Amino acid sequence: MSYPSISQIDSDIKKVRPTSELVTSHTVISGSDAEAQIAVVGDHTYDPQPSTYRRILSSIREPMAEFFGVALLIIFGAGSAASAVLSTNSGVSSSPKGDFFSINFGWAIGIAMGVWVSGTISGGHINPAMTLAMATWRKFPWRKVPAYILAQVLGGVVGAALVYGIYFGAIDIYEGAGVRTQATAGIFTTYSLPYMTSAAAFFTEFLTTAILSMVVLALTDKRNSTLSPGLLPLALFLLFIGFGVSLGIQTAYALNPARDFGPRLFLLMAGYGKEVFTYRNQYWLWCPIIAPIVGAQAGALLYDLFLYTGQGPLNAKGDY
Questions:
Q1: Backbone region of residue 124 per phi and psi (left: phi > 0; alpha: psi in -120 to 50; beta: other values)
Q2: Which of 57, 111, 174, 313 has its Cβ near the most Cβ atoms within 10 Å?
Q3: What is the CATH number of the domain that holds 244?
Q4: What are the helix (H) ranges across 51-167?
Q5: Residue 52 lies inside a defined structural domain of this protein
Q6: Quick one: how far is CA 85 from the chain centroid?
Q7: Among residues 255, 234, 221, which one has the least CA distance to residue 128?
Q8: Would you say the pTM of this structure is higher than 0.70?
Q9: Which tens digit of pLDDT belongs to each residue from 26-83?
Q10: Is residue 121 part of a domain?
């Protein structure tokens, strides 16, 4: 008994090979009975057209990763704040279940989990300020920016809605049934302490986001960082713990327009009233949105100007 040779099998495959195919593998026996050989050849499974579901998934997968990343950030962050704040009421809990450090810990876990979920799909920006910085300084496609930012903001809305729903009863006990004020709005959005001037609040957010941008670019710079890509979320976890305990008390360190604006939109819909937007002459716009965007650009500029040796807007050739 004889078997077809490998060359014969390969020739037959080429005759029927389509332009679009999925390639798996299987084994065949070639040669004589006395001296059989095992060879791996292509098993060509036809995939003429992707399904409608696959086409839709391909177009929304990256924005959805950003959506889920921000939603997780808010769930862990606002959830930890809700636990710490609402449990100070004896009607909610017999003893407090958190403090300033636990809130920082919650936001740090949120940033790590959000980036872990989205990182290899969308880049793990989960922050409009970082998306704009990456588009400006790291060739992230500008055509993707609107979808990313929309997804990030919607993730903030949904994340806040989920936490609000979970703690709805506790909020009623804490504030009174149907009463909604800044006392619990601060669980979801950022407010500066009363003594802070507008300039001081803006600069705090500007500086903190500049540091965030510089550190992210350093951690993702192959010529500078020795960090494994899979450990980036852990590094960001440590960074956000640092932000919270060092720079977080005065403005609640938004650093992220979607982290503040998304939940603020939800609070407006949840009955907190227009005060969430009229506080301190549109604080919502110039402190947690404009300051982080400008700060992220400044941090990227400083990194590229003094530390980055790769190709970028300031160095077209990419080398010294």
A1: left
A2: 111
A3: 1.20.1080.10
A4: 52-86, 100-122, 128-137, 145-166
A5: no
A6: 25
A7: 255
A8: yes
A9: 433 334 343 333 333 344 444 568 899 989 999 999 999 999 999 999 999 999 999 9
A10: yes
